[in-house]
Write a structure and sequence with these properties.
The complex is a heterodimer of chains A (354) and B (72). Chain A has a six-stranded mixed β-sheet, sandwiched between helices. A five-stranded mixed β-sheet of chain A has the order 1-10-15-14-13, sandwiched between helices. Chain A is of the alpha/beta class. With 72 residues, chain B is mostly helical. Chain B has a single domain, classed as Non-ribosomal Peptide Synthetase Peptidyl Carrier Protein, Chain A. Chain B starts with a helix and ends with a helix. The chains are: A alpha/beta (354), B mainly alpha (72). The interface between A and B is medium-sized, with 19 and 16 residues.
Protein backbone atom coordinates (compact mmCIF):
# COMPACT_ATOMS: atom_id res chain seq x y z
CA UNK A 1 0.00 0.00 0.00
CA UNK A 2 1.38 3.38 -1.02
CA UNK A 3 0.98 6.42 1.23
CA UNK A 4 2.28 9.96 0.94
CA UNK A 5 3.22 12.51 3.59
CA UNK A 6 3.54 16.13 2.56
CA UNK A 7 4.58 19.28 4.40
CA UNK A 8 6.66 17.32 6.92
CA UNK A 9 10.42 16.70 6.84
CA UNK A 10 12.94 14.72 8.87
CA UNK A 11 14.65 17.46 10.91
CA UNK A 12 17.26 15.52 12.89
CA UNK A 13 18.43 11.97 13.64
CA UNK A 14 20.34 10.85 16.75
CA UNK A 15 21.39 7.49 18.19
CA UNK A 16 22.14 6.58 21.81
CA UNK A 17 24.22 3.58 22.88
CA UNK A 18 25.78 2.36 26.14
CA UNK A 19 29.50 3.03 26.53
CA UNK A 20 30.44 -0.67 26.65
CA UNK A 21 31.32 -2.13 23.25
CA UNK A 22 32.27 -5.78 23.15
CA UNK A 23 33.78 -7.52 20.14
CA UNK A 24 32.47 -11.00 19.38
CA UNK A 25 35.98 -12.42 19.57
CA UNK A 26 36.48 -10.91 23.00
CA UNK A 27 33.12 -12.21 24.15
CA UNK A 28 33.90 -15.60 22.73
CA UNK A 29 37.18 -15.63 24.62
CA UNK A 30 35.74 -14.52 27.93
CA UNK A 31 32.39 -16.18 28.14
CA UNK A 32 32.51 -19.00 25.65
CA UNK A 33 29.51 -19.14 23.37
CA UNK A 34 29.68 -22.83 22.62
CA UNK A 35 31.17 -21.88 19.27
CA UNK A 36 34.56 -22.94 18.05
CA UNK A 37 36.82 -20.30 16.58
CA UNK A 38 36.23 -21.36 13.00
CA UNK A 39 32.44 -21.14 13.38
CA UNK A 40 32.75 -17.74 15.00
CA UNK A 41 34.96 -16.44 12.18
CA UNK A 42 32.42 -17.70 9.67
CA UNK A 43 29.60 -16.06 11.62
CA UNK A 44 31.46 -12.75 11.55
CA UNK A 45 32.20 -13.08 7.84
CA UNK A 46 28.61 -13.89 6.86
CA UNK A 47 26.66 -11.64 9.20
CA UNK A 48 29.14 -8.77 9.21
CA UNK A 49 28.79 -8.37 13.00
CA UNK A 50 32.16 -7.73 14.65
CA UNK A 51 30.78 -6.58 17.98
CA UNK A 52 27.97 -4.63 19.59
CA UNK A 53 27.11 -2.20 22.34
CA UNK A 54 25.79 -3.87 25.48
CA UNK A 55 23.75 -1.89 28.00
CA UNK A 56 24.47 -1.81 31.73
CA UNK A 57 22.26 -3.90 33.98
CA UNK A 58 19.57 -1.38 34.87
CA UNK A 59 19.56 0.40 31.53
CA UNK A 60 16.54 -0.02 29.27
CA UNK A 61 16.11 0.98 25.66
CA UNK A 62 14.13 4.05 26.68
CA UNK A 63 17.25 5.31 28.49
CA UNK A 64 19.19 5.15 25.22
CA UNK A 65 16.34 6.81 23.30
CA UNK A 66 16.03 9.48 25.99
CA UNK A 67 19.74 10.39 25.72
CA UNK A 68 19.49 10.55 21.92
CA UNK A 69 16.34 12.71 22.11
CA UNK A 70 17.83 15.02 24.71
CA UNK A 71 20.85 15.61 22.47
CA UNK A 72 18.66 16.26 19.44
CA UNK A 73 16.22 18.60 21.20
CA UNK A 74 18.95 20.70 22.80
CA UNK A 75 21.11 20.78 19.66
CA UNK A 76 18.19 21.94 17.52
CA UNK A 77 16.88 24.17 20.28
CA UNK A 78 13.34 22.78 20.04
CA UNK A 79 10.43 24.22 22.05
CA UNK A 80 9.25 21.07 23.82
CA UNK A 81 5.72 22.42 24.16
CA UNK A 82 5.38 22.27 20.38
CA UNK A 83 5.99 18.52 20.10
CA UNK A 84 2.47 17.36 19.23
CA UNK A 85 3.21 13.67 18.60
CA UNK A 86 5.63 11.46 20.52
CA UNK A 87 5.90 7.80 19.55
CA UNK A 88 8.05 5.04 21.01
CA UNK A 89 8.51 2.02 18.73
CA UNK A 90 10.01 -1.05 20.35
CA UNK A 91 9.46 -4.54 21.66
CA UNK A 92 11.49 -3.98 24.81
CA UNK A 93 9.23 -1.77 26.89
CA UNK A 94 10.01 -0.51 30.38
CA UNK A 95 6.78 -1.77 31.93
CA UNK A 96 3.92 -4.08 31.07
CA UNK A 97 1.84 -0.94 31.72
CA UNK A 98 1.80 1.99 31.02
CA UNK A 99 3.24 2.76 27.59
CA UNK A 100 6.93 3.76 27.70
CA UNK A 101 6.23 6.82 25.51
CA UNK A 102 4.46 8.47 28.47
CA UNK A 103 7.50 8.01 30.68
CA UNK A 104 9.66 9.47 27.91
CA UNK A 105 7.32 12.45 27.57
CA UNK A 106 7.78 13.10 31.28
CA UNK A 107 11.57 12.65 31.23
CA UNK A 108 11.99 14.90 28.20
CA UNK A 109 9.71 17.63 29.59
CA UNK A 110 7.43 17.49 26.57
CA UNK A 111 4.24 19.52 27.05
CA UNK A 112 0.78 18.01 27.56
CA UNK A 113 -0.62 19.17 24.24
CA UNK A 114 0.76 15.98 22.75
CA UNK A 115 -0.31 12.51 21.59
CA UNK A 116 2.12 10.06 23.17
CA UNK A 117 1.81 6.33 22.56
CA UNK A 118 3.79 3.15 21.81
CA UNK A 119 3.93 0.97 18.75
CA UNK A 120 4.99 -2.66 19.21
CA UNK A 121 7.00 -3.43 16.10
CA UNK A 122 10.53 -4.69 15.46
CA UNK A 123 12.71 -4.32 12.39
CA UNK A 124 10.05 -2.56 10.28
CA UNK A 125 9.39 -0.10 13.11
CA UNK A 126 11.44 2.87 11.95
CA UNK A 127 9.67 3.18 8.62
CA UNK A 128 6.26 2.53 10.19
CA UNK A 129 6.96 5.08 12.91
CA UNK A 130 7.86 7.77 10.35
CA UNK A 131 4.66 7.02 8.46
CA UNK A 132 2.38 7.17 11.52
CA UNK A 133 3.98 10.28 12.99
CA UNK A 134 3.94 12.07 9.61
CA UNK A 135 0.26 11.20 9.09
CA UNK A 136 -0.74 12.47 12.53
CA UNK A 137 1.20 15.69 12.02
CA UNK A 138 -0.51 16.26 8.68
CA UNK A 139 -3.92 15.94 10.35
CA UNK A 140 -3.06 18.11 13.33
CA UNK A 141 -1.41 21.42 14.10
CA UNK A 142 1.63 19.74 15.65
CA UNK A 143 4.79 21.72 14.90
CA UNK A 144 7.11 18.82 15.74
CA UNK A 145 6.94 15.06 16.04
CA UNK A 146 9.40 12.94 18.02
CA UNK A 147 9.96 9.33 17.01
CA UNK A 148 12.00 7.09 19.27
CA UNK A 149 12.85 3.55 18.18
CA UNK A 150 15.08 0.77 19.30
CA UNK A 151 15.74 -2.33 21.31
CA UNK A 152 17.99 -3.73 23.94
CA UNK A 153 18.42 -6.86 21.87
CA UNK A 154 21.21 -8.28 24.02
CA UNK A 155 18.59 -8.96 26.70
CA UNK A 156 16.83 -11.64 24.68
CA UNK A 157 18.25 -15.06 24.01
CA UNK A 158 17.37 -16.12 20.52
CA UNK A 159 16.73 -19.81 19.98
CA UNK A 160 16.85 -21.10 16.43
CA UNK A 161 15.20 -24.31 15.37
CA UNK A 162 18.62 -25.58 14.41
CA UNK A 163 20.63 -26.41 17.52
CA UNK A 164 23.77 -25.02 15.87
CA UNK A 165 22.25 -21.54 15.68
CA UNK A 166 23.79 -18.78 17.70
CA UNK A 167 21.66 -15.92 16.54
CA UNK A 168 21.69 -14.22 19.93
CA UNK A 169 25.16 -12.79 19.25
CA UNK A 170 23.70 -11.09 16.19
CA UNK A 171 21.83 -8.50 18.23
CA UNK A 172 22.98 -5.25 19.81
CA UNK A 173 21.55 -2.41 21.89
CA UNK A 174 20.70 1.02 20.47
CA UNK A 175 18.03 3.67 20.96
CA UNK A 176 17.25 6.36 18.43
CA UNK A 177 15.46 9.68 18.20
CA UNK A 178 14.19 11.29 15.01
CA UNK A 179 12.67 14.74 14.85
CA UNK A 180 9.95 15.52 12.34
CA UNK A 181 9.31 19.14 11.49
CA UNK A 182 6.36 20.88 9.88
CA UNK A 183 7.70 22.57 6.74
CA UNK A 184 5.50 23.67 3.84
CA UNK A 185 8.48 23.39 1.49
CA UNK A 186 9.35 19.83 2.47
CA UNK A 187 9.51 17.34 -0.41
CA UNK A 188 6.92 14.57 -0.13
CA UNK A 189 7.74 11.30 1.60
CA UNK A 190 6.36 8.19 -0.11
CA UNK A 191 5.85 4.98 1.82
CA UNK A 192 5.10 1.41 0.83
CA UNK A 193 3.91 -0.80 3.72
CA UNK A 194 3.00 -4.47 4.02
CA UNK A 195 2.15 -6.96 6.78
CA UNK A 196 1.62 -10.73 6.93
CA UNK A 197 0.35 -11.95 10.29
CA UNK A 198 -0.02 -15.51 8.98
CA UNK A 199 3.73 -15.81 9.54
CA UNK A 200 3.69 -14.51 13.13
CA UNK A 201 5.45 -17.69 14.32
CA UNK A 202 8.55 -17.12 12.17
CA UNK A 203 9.98 -14.83 14.86
CA UNK A 204 8.32 -14.96 18.25
CA UNK A 205 8.90 -14.57 21.97
CA UNK A 206 5.74 -16.34 23.20
CA UNK A 207 6.26 -16.47 26.97
CA UNK A 208 5.56 -14.23 29.92
CA UNK A 209 2.60 -12.24 28.65
CA UNK A 210 -1.13 -12.90 28.69
CA UNK A 211 -1.46 -15.87 26.27
CA UNK A 212 1.29 -17.86 27.96
CA UNK A 213 1.89 -16.11 31.29
CA UNK A 214 4.36 -18.64 32.67
CA UNK A 215 7.86 -18.11 31.36
CA UNK A 216 8.69 -21.64 30.26
CA UNK A 217 11.87 -20.41 28.64
CA UNK A 218 13.16 -16.88 28.39
CA UNK A 219 13.90 -17.09 24.70
CA UNK A 220 12.80 -15.76 21.39
CA UNK A 221 12.36 -18.25 18.57
CA UNK A 222 13.51 -17.64 15.04
CA UNK A 223 12.93 -19.81 12.00
CA UNK A 224 16.12 -18.57 10.39
CA UNK A 225 15.58 -19.93 6.88
CA UNK A 226 11.99 -18.64 6.60
CA UNK A 227 13.04 -15.21 7.83
CA UNK A 228 16.01 -15.20 5.46
CA UNK A 229 13.86 -16.16 2.48
CA UNK A 230 11.24 -13.56 3.41
CA UNK A 231 13.88 -10.84 3.75
CA UNK A 232 15.62 -11.58 0.47
CA UNK A 233 12.40 -11.97 -1.52
CA UNK A 234 9.71 -9.72 -0.16
CA UNK A 235 11.80 -6.75 0.94
CA UNK A 236 13.31 -6.27 -2.55
CA UNK A 237 9.90 -6.79 -4.13
CA UNK A 238 8.44 -4.01 -1.96
CA UNK A 239 11.35 -1.66 -2.71
CA UNK A 240 11.00 -2.34 -6.44
CA UNK A 241 7.24 -1.75 -6.22
CA UNK A 242 7.85 1.58 -4.49
CA UNK A 243 10.39 2.60 -7.16
CA UNK A 244 7.92 1.57 -9.89
CA UNK A 245 5.22 3.73 -8.32
CA UNK A 246 7.67 6.62 -8.05
CA UNK A 247 9.04 5.96 -11.56
CA UNK A 248 12.55 5.97 -10.07
CA UNK A 249 15.53 3.63 -10.14
CA UNK A 250 18.53 3.19 -7.85
CA UNK A 251 20.25 6.01 -9.81
CA UNK A 252 17.79 8.54 -8.37
CA UNK A 253 18.86 7.90 -4.76
CA UNK A 254 22.03 8.91 -2.99
CA UNK A 255 21.72 6.11 -0.45
CA UNK A 256 19.93 2.85 0.26
CA UNK A 257 19.58 2.29 4.00
CA UNK A 258 18.35 -1.19 4.85
CA UNK A 259 17.47 -2.61 8.20
CA UNK A 260 20.80 -4.08 9.31
CA UNK A 261 19.61 -7.69 9.48
CA UNK A 262 22.85 -9.34 8.41
CA UNK A 263 25.38 -8.73 5.66
CA UNK A 264 24.21 -11.60 3.47
CA UNK A 265 20.59 -10.41 3.49
CA UNK A 266 21.50 -6.78 2.78
CA UNK A 267 23.75 -7.80 -0.09
CA UNK A 268 20.95 -9.82 -1.69
CA UNK A 269 18.41 -7.00 -1.31
CA UNK A 270 20.80 -4.41 -2.81
CA UNK A 271 21.49 -6.74 -5.73
CA UNK A 272 17.82 -7.38 -6.43
CA UNK A 273 16.92 -3.70 -6.32
CA UNK A 274 19.79 -2.59 -8.56
CA UNK A 275 21.71 -0.66 -5.90
CA UNK A 276 25.52 -0.79 -6.02
CA UNK A 277 27.03 -1.96 -2.72
CA UNK A 278 28.66 1.44 -2.09
CA UNK A 279 25.25 3.15 -1.94
CA UNK A 280 24.03 0.73 0.74
CA UNK A 281 24.98 2.18 4.14
CA UNK A 282 26.15 -0.35 6.75
CA UNK A 283 26.45 -0.24 10.52
CA UNK A 284 26.03 -3.93 11.38
CA UNK A 285 29.81 -4.36 11.90
CA UNK A 286 29.83 -2.09 14.95
CA UNK A 287 26.22 -2.12 16.15
CA UNK A 288 24.99 -5.63 15.27
CA UNK A 289 21.33 -6.02 14.40
CA UNK A 290 19.48 -3.42 16.48
CA UNK A 291 15.94 -4.01 15.17
CA UNK A 292 14.00 -0.75 14.71
CA UNK A 293 17.11 1.29 15.60
CA UNK A 294 19.26 -0.10 12.81
CA UNK A 295 18.38 2.31 9.97
CA UNK A 296 19.25 5.30 12.17
CA UNK A 297 22.49 3.63 13.32
CA UNK A 298 23.53 3.29 9.66
CA UNK A 299 22.73 6.98 9.06
CA UNK A 300 24.73 8.08 12.10
CA UNK A 301 27.71 5.77 11.54
CA UNK A 302 28.18 6.86 7.93
CA UNK A 303 26.93 10.43 7.72
CA UNK A 304 27.26 12.08 11.15
CA UNK A 305 30.41 13.91 10.01
CA UNK A 306 29.01 14.91 6.64
CA UNK A 307 28.54 18.56 5.80
CA UNK A 308 26.73 17.74 2.59
CA UNK A 309 23.21 19.13 2.31
CA UNK A 310 19.98 17.39 1.38
CA UNK A 311 20.22 13.89 -0.06
CA UNK A 312 17.61 11.45 -1.29
CA UNK A 313 17.26 8.21 0.64
CA UNK A 314 15.49 4.94 0.24
CA UNK A 315 14.99 3.42 3.70
CA UNK A 316 13.57 -0.05 4.28
CA UNK A 317 12.79 -2.15 7.35
CA UNK A 318 11.58 -5.76 7.29
CA UNK A 319 11.17 -8.50 9.89
CA UNK A 320 9.17 -9.75 12.84
CA UNK A 321 5.38 -9.76 12.39
CA UNK A 322 5.98 -10.29 9.60
CA UNK A 323 5.97 -6.62 8.76
CA UNK A 324 7.86 -4.62 6.15
CA UNK A 325 7.97 -1.14 4.69
CA UNK A 326 10.04 1.33 2.69
CA UNK A 327 10.15 5.08 2.31
CA UNK A 328 11.48 7.42 -0.35
CA UNK A 329 12.53 10.58 1.53
CA UNK A 330 15.05 13.41 1.81
CA UNK A 331 17.32 14.13 4.78
CA UNK A 332 19.81 16.96 5.15
CA UNK A 333 23.04 15.15 6.06
CA UNK A 334 23.97 17.96 8.43
CA UNK A 335 20.93 16.98 10.53
CA UNK A 336 22.42 13.57 11.29
CA UNK A 337 24.06 13.97 14.71
CA UNK A 338 27.12 12.22 16.17
CA UNK A 339 26.67 9.08 18.30
CA UNK A 340 25.59 9.69 21.92
CA UNK A 341 27.05 7.36 24.58
CA UNK A 342 25.55 6.97 28.03
CA UNK A 343 25.38 4.55 30.94
CA UNK A 344 22.69 6.54 32.71
CA UNK A 345 19.38 4.95 33.58
CA UNK A 346 16.11 6.18 35.00
CA UNK A 347 15.55 5.82 38.73
CA UNK A 348 11.80 5.34 38.74
CA UNK A 349 11.40 4.68 42.48
CA UNK A 350 10.29 1.08 42.01
CA UNK A 351 13.61 -0.59 41.51
CA UNK A 352 14.05 -1.58 45.12
CA UNK A 353 10.97 -3.81 45.03
CA UNK A 354 12.47 -7.09 43.90
CA UNK B 1 27.67 -27.39 -15.40
CA UNK B 2 29.16 -30.84 -14.74
CA UNK B 3 29.33 -32.58 -11.39
CA UNK B 4 32.92 -31.51 -10.78
CA UNK B 5 32.04 -27.85 -11.25
CA UNK B 6 28.99 -28.20 -9.02
CA UNK B 7 31.09 -29.79 -6.28
CA UNK B 8 33.61 -26.96 -6.56
CA UNK B 9 30.78 -24.47 -6.17
CA UNK B 10 29.50 -26.34 -3.10
CA UNK B 11 32.99 -26.42 -1.60
CA UNK B 12 33.18 -22.66 -2.01
CA UNK B 13 29.76 -22.28 -0.39
CA UNK B 14 30.65 -24.61 2.49
CA UNK B 15 34.00 -22.83 2.85
CA UNK B 16 35.92 -26.12 2.74
CA UNK B 17 39.07 -27.09 0.84
CA UNK B 18 38.94 -28.13 -2.78
CA UNK B 19 38.34 -31.86 -3.22
CA UNK B 20 36.82 -32.26 0.26
CA UNK B 21 33.26 -33.05 -0.83
CA UNK B 22 31.98 -36.10 -2.65
CA UNK B 23 28.37 -36.96 -3.62
CA UNK B 24 27.84 -39.84 -1.19
CA UNK B 25 28.93 -37.88 1.90
CA UNK B 26 26.35 -37.48 4.65
CA UNK B 27 25.67 -33.82 5.44
CA UNK B 28 25.44 -34.68 9.14
CA UNK B 29 29.10 -35.67 8.99
CA UNK B 30 30.19 -32.30 7.60
CA UNK B 31 30.95 -29.89 10.45
CA UNK B 32 30.76 -26.86 8.16
CA UNK B 33 27.16 -27.64 7.18
CA UNK B 34 25.55 -25.40 9.81
CA UNK B 35 22.79 -22.79 9.79
CA UNK B 36 25.06 -20.13 8.30
CA UNK B 37 26.10 -22.43 5.46
CA UNK B 38 22.46 -23.20 4.74
CA UNK B 39 21.83 -19.49 4.16
CA UNK B 40 24.86 -19.29 1.85
CA UNK B 41 23.53 -22.37 0.05
CA UNK B 42 20.17 -20.64 -0.55
CA UNK B 43 21.98 -17.63 -2.02
CA UNK B 44 24.24 -19.77 -4.23
CA UNK B 45 21.38 -21.92 -5.60
CA UNK B 46 19.28 -18.83 -6.29
CA UNK B 47 22.13 -16.94 -7.98
CA UNK B 48 23.39 -19.85 -10.06
CA UNK B 49 20.24 -21.85 -10.76
CA UNK B 50 17.44 -19.33 -10.30
CA UNK B 51 15.49 -21.28 -7.69
CA UNK B 52 14.76 -20.54 -4.05
CA UNK B 53 15.24 -23.39 -1.58
CA UNK B 54 12.74 -23.55 1.27
CA UNK B 55 13.40 -24.66 4.85
CA UNK B 56 11.42 -27.86 4.19
CA UNK B 57 13.52 -28.72 1.14
CA UNK B 58 16.76 -28.14 3.02
CA UNK B 59 15.56 -30.37 5.85
CA UNK B 60 15.13 -33.23 3.35
CA UNK B 61 18.77 -33.05 2.25
CA UNK B 62 20.68 -36.03 3.64
CA UNK B 63 23.70 -36.29 1.33
CA UNK B 64 25.78 -34.01 -0.86
CA UNK B 65 24.10 -35.75 -3.82
CA UNK B 66 20.69 -34.49 -2.64
CA UNK B 67 21.97 -30.94 -3.02
CA UNK B 68 23.61 -31.69 -6.38
CA UNK B 69 20.20 -32.94 -7.57
CA UNK B 70 18.62 -29.49 -7.17
CA UNK B 71 21.57 -27.75 -8.83
CA UNK B 72 20.11 -27.98 -12.33
Amino acid sequence: MLSTISGIRIGAVAVGVPTRWVSLEEQFGFEGSGMDEKTLKKFIKNTGVEGRYISVEKQTNSDLCCAAAEKLLSEKNIDRNKIGVLIYVSQTFDYRQPATSLVLQHRLNVGMDCMAFDIGLGCSGYVYGLNVIGSLMMQSKAEYGLLMCGETGTRDIICGKDAADNEDILFGDAGTATLLVRDPDAPEMHFMSRSDGSRFRALIHPWGFYRNPVKVRDVEYMDGISVFNFSTEEAPELINDLMNEMKTSSDDYDYLVLHQANKLIMKQIAKKTGFPEEKSLKSIDVFGNTSSASIATALVKNLADSDKGRSRFLLSGYGIGLSWGAVDCYIDEKDILPLVKTDEYFEDGYQSIN
Amino acid sequence: MDEKEKLALLEETFDVDEGTLSPEMLLDDIDEYDSMTKLSLIVMVEDEFGKKLTGAEIKEFKTVQDILNVMV
